[in-house]
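step=encode ok
step=design start
structure_in=
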C-alpha cells in the first residue's frame, strides 16, 4: 500500500506542477477532508483559502490560486515525501510571485495526505499564513 500511496502523491504533485486543475481534482475522493492552516472564515486578500469538499471545489481552489500568482515564476519545491501506509507527508517550500507586479514570497509547508482506494481522501496543508496574508494584503 505504501508504494500505491507514494505513486498517487507523486502523480498529484506532477499534475499540480503542470497546472492541470481538472485532472488534479479527479484524484480526490468526494467528499474530501480538506483543511488549510487558516481560520475557517479565511481572509479577503486570499480568496482561494476556504473550506472545500468536492472535486469541483478542489479544481476551483487551484484555478483561484493560479489567478492570483504568476505560474511561470512558481518555484515551489518538494524536499521530502514521507509515506506510512495510506498517509503521506510532503515537506517543502512554497515560492510564488503575486500577479500584477506583486512581490515574490516563500513559505515552508507541510502537506498531510491520505490515500484510500487510489483517491486522496485527506488534504491538510500547513503553511506560513501570516506571510501569505501580508504579501496579498500589500503589507
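sequence_out=
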Amino acid at each position: 500500500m505504501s508504494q500505491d500511496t507514494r505513486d498517487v502523491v507523486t502523480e498529484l504533485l506532477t499534475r499540480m506542477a503542470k497546472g492541470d486543475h481538472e485532472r488534479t481534482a479527479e484524484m480526490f475522493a468526494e467528499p474530501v477532508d480538506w483543511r488549510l492552516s487558516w481560520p475557517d472564515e479565511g481572509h479577503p486578500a486570499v480568496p482561494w483559502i476556504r473550506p472545500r469538499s468536492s472535486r469541483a471545489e478542489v479544481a476551483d481552489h487551484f484555478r483561484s490560486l493560479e489567478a492570483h500568482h504568476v505560474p511561470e515564476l512558481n518555484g515551489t519545491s518538494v524536499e521530502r515525501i514521507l509515506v506510512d501506509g495510506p498517509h503521506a507527508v510532503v515537506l517543502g517550500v512554497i515560492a510564488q510571485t503575486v500577479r500584477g507586479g506583486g512581490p515574490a514570497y516563500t513559505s515552508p509547508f507541510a502537506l498531510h495526505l491520505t490515500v484510500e482506494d487510489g483517491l486522496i481522501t485527506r488534504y491538510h496543508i500547513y503553511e506560513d499564513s501570516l506571510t501569505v496574508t501580508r504579501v496579498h494584503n500589500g503589507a
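step=design ok
step=annotate ok -> Residues 72 and 97 are 9 Å apart (CA to CA).
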